[in-house]
Amino acid sequence: MQKFLEFVSGIFEVDSKELSGETSYKSIPQWTSLMHLRLVAEIEEEYGVEIPIDEVPEMKTLTDFFEYIKE
Known about the structure:
Blueprint: H1 2-12, H2 33-47, H3 62-70
């Protein structure tokens, strides 16, 4: 999970120590709806997964994303 948080911190341009699995949509100023879509795209590219568009709104915390890429 720590490596994932470091990856995400680069996207949001924050220190990885500011993030946790419980970090959720809009809990940090950088996590806007546009950044939510960018996060999806960056995760898909980095981890070689395809996140179905209908599942994106259900992904609200970093743990949600992390659990998805672990599958």
